[in-house]
Design brief:
By secondary structure, the chain is α/β, with parallel strands linked by helices. It has a single domain (4-249), classed as Metallo-dependent phosphatases (Purple Acid Phosphatase, chain A, domain 2), CATH 3.60.21. It has ten helices and eleven strands. A six-stranded mixed β-sheet has the order 1-5-6-7-9-8, covered by helices on one side. A five-stranded mixed β-sheet has the order 4-3-2-10-11. The radius of gyration is 17 Å and the shape is globular.
Amino acid sequence: MSEEYGRVAVLSDIHGVLPALEAVLAEPEVAAADRIVVTGDIAAGPQPAEVLDLLRGLGDQVLWLGGNADRELVEYRRGERTEIPDPIGVFAARALRAEQVDLLASLPATLTLRVRGLGEVLFCHATPRDDEEVVLVDSRPGRWAEVLDGVPPGVGTVVCGHTHMPYVRLAHGRLIVNPGSVGMPYGRPGAHWGLLGPGADLRVTAYDIPEAVARLTADCAYPDIAAWADCYLRARVTDTEALAAFGPRDGRSGS
């Protein structure tokens, strides 16, 4: 915790989409970042092994966190579950090499870094206490109080992912940053990510989506890959639809 980083890139919810990850890593500010924090749901998608290999090739520049989808892949491969809610999950789990399963199993749930201009920043996948909880840009203050309970008082910024929609907001005096999804964006196409230090900037990298859809369709053996790539790379799921689906899971009925 003693070292302070000037610039930290945040990549969340890559979901095994190699062309989107390649596009973000080609961004000069990502390449030049002191650290790249990957906040979970890295491999559950069409090119899981390739995505992990690319990130591992960056060495110590990358700091890793696990997400619920990564945990599901590990549990499936280790015989702790017989199915995965997302249909592509079983394909992704089977595509991983044994050492990649071990890597995903070893990933921590949270990480705290000191970032110039922001102080102590806590990174997580969904919320600081759970890898599947839902908080949204319009979640009520009481919900934020619940999920932030137990976060050390010195932490002024919390970075989360999981819901695939970017936003920045204040909640109980803390800055909340969700960079959105690199590989499976809801609401608008492009590879979404964040840049921290000294502020908190939401970024989106445009890339050749028709070419990426064609590439995934040609290279991935998942039976429904053409429909999967068309849906998620083209962001067919709108932010309105995603908020409607996620809303009941953030406890808002109790507000």
